[in-house]
Amino acid sequence: EKQFLTERLSQVRDVFIFCCFTGLAYSDIEKLSESNIKIGVDGKKWVFTNRTKTGTRSAIPLLPPAIAILERYSDHPYCITKNRALPVSSNQKLNEYLKEIAAVCEIDKPLSSHIARHTFATTITLLNGVPMESVSKMLGHTNIRTTQIYAKVLDIKVGADMALLQNRFSIN
What we know:
mainly alpha; hpI Integrase, Chain A; three-stranded antiparallel sheet; 9 helices
């Protein structure tokens, strides 16, 4: 919710947040166009794309924050002239500006475009109960073992899940 004085930082913030809510890698977000946004089987907006890295099909239902960001830039001159969904700068510039945003917001951890993908895999999906198979498919992974790497950091989720069982089996 931080407001920035420059349009440049506001756009980078929005691109980062969009990536957090879609799991798209920089190479996929950079080429994303309106033609990749379609109505899915549930009647809602989805992103359909083939991953640049692997060529694997990726289908991601859009959550409300991601839809709001897309709508914000639908009339942006860059997006119109380049036929892109978002105004995305080079990966080097994006990561440079993310460091600037981290400093302004007093965030100690390093921010990068790839951190957004990890955030989607862990905080947005797995920690909210989305099955690993679904997360793997949305991320466009060709092997679920790749997704399991993201899940290793989720011991807190295992603890919370087991706490429910511990309460069920507690002896009074």
